[in-house]
From TrEMBL:
SMART domains: HDc. InterPro entries: HD/PDEase_dom, HD_GYP_dom, HDIG_dom. This is HDIG domain-containing protein. Residues 164-357 form the HD-GYP domain. PROSITE patterns: HD_GYP.
Length: 357
């Protein structure tokens, strides 16, 4: 149901209601319907429930309006108590008093909208600033790896902190919305996986240091792709078998170049090398299975697969989050089922639920 800037008057006193409708109509579109009518297809932003003879009908309308989150002014001998209106006036209140109440409610609605828009703009700006920090970090890291130069630990830490703060303060939905505007798909994927990891770590109530380790590893998990030829990396179609063999070198290439730098933790190196390993031994590059795969790797693998399935690719459209999760559940023993269940609660469900306005 689409909402429009209009007032709806529901009345069982059409003659008394008509002058009120005309007066409101001088300021905003106002429609009048009988109490036995259906809700119009165009949902109003304010309703006047002038149903004085049938309290059950008044209650039905107020309940319906409450469910649609439409503020209401009730005119009646006494207010409904089971689903109280936003405001109440006696049925015999002077017309000017009713008009004043209607316009006051309209002013409150408009002020609330402005506050929400201001808050939404503020959130986008603040998340955008943190996203720029993280994007600069991952861009700098890939550029350095591509040149064979050492990665800046300070930049990696700054990017990781920015991701944790953004997801913690504003949520994974807002984070994905902001980074989805970036053009470079490889960097966007790294930021996406790191965002999912930040949300997952928070949902698991990990200690702050562990959340940092998880998000940092997720941010750098694909660093080996810096050494993959661009013709393969940016190919718009599915890769051939030979091209896929080259692409599958990126985990070991990435782990080796970070290990050569000598400043990265072994747990992070394990994520970079093994994030494509599967619990049943069917993954690569080393065919690890079961307990050979550390928990941190399992966490990032789930985030990586979910991100890949929900991203737009040249050869397919992105999947909805729940559909992607169903595919991952169908992977059976390849993924950690307990962690996958926890991932759904921490990440997938918040993304599939309608945000509160």
């Amino acid at each position: 149901m689409i909402q429009e800037a209009s007032v709806l008057v529901i009345s069982d006193r059409p003659e008394q209601a008509a002058p009120l409708v005309r007066a409101i109509g001088t300021v905003v579109t106002c429609r009048q319907i009988a109490s036995g009518s259906e809700m119009p297809a165009q949902r109003p932003f304010l309703a006047v429930v002038d149903v004085t003879e049938d309290e059950a009908a008044a209650t039905t309308w107020l309940t319906r309006l409450h469910g649609l989150r439409v503020p209401s002014l009730q005119l009646a001998p006494r207010p409904v108590t089971t689903r109280p209106p936003t405001r109440f006036l006696p049925a015999n209140a002077p017309r000017m008093t009713v008009l004043a109440a209607v316009f006051d409610l309209m002013d409150g609605i408009e002020a609330g909208r402005e506050r929400r828009f201001d808050e939404a703009d503020r959130r986008r700006i603040q998340v955008g600033t943190k996203a720029e920090t993280a994007n600069h970090s991952v861009t700098e890291a890939f550029d350095a790896a591509r040149r064979g130069a050492p990665l800046s630990l300070a930049a990696v830490e700054a990017g990781t902190e920015a991701i944790l703060e953004a997801v913690s303060e504003y949520g994974i939905r807002t984070w994905l919305e902001i980074i989805g505007r970036y053009d470079q798909q490889l960097y966007q994927h790294s930021l996406s996986v790191a965002g999912y990891a930040a949300a997952f770590g928070a949902g698991l109530s990990l200690a702050r240091a562990d959340q940092m380790n998880l998000a940092r590893a997720a941010l750098l998990h694909d660093i080996g792709k810096s050494r993959i030829p661009l013709a393969i990396l940016n190919k718009p179609d599915r890769l051939t078998a030979d091209e896929m063999a080259v692409m599958r070198t990126h985990p070991s290439v990435g782990a080796d170049l970070l290990e050569d730098q000598g400043t990265f933790d072994p747990t992070l190196l394990a994520v970079v090398r093994h994030h494509h390993e599967m619990l049943d031994g069917s993954g690569y590059p080393d065919g690890l299975s079961g307990t050979e795969i550390p928990d941190l790797v399992r966490l990032v693998t789930i985030c990586d697969i979910h991100s890949a399935l929900t991203e737009r690719r040249a050869y397919r459209n992105p999947l909805p989050h729940e559909a992607a999760h169903e595919i991952m559940r169908d992977m059976g023993e390849k993924l950690d089922t307990d962690l996958l269940r926890a991932y759904r609660s921490a990440v997938v469900l918040p993304l599939t639920q309608t945000p509160v306005a």
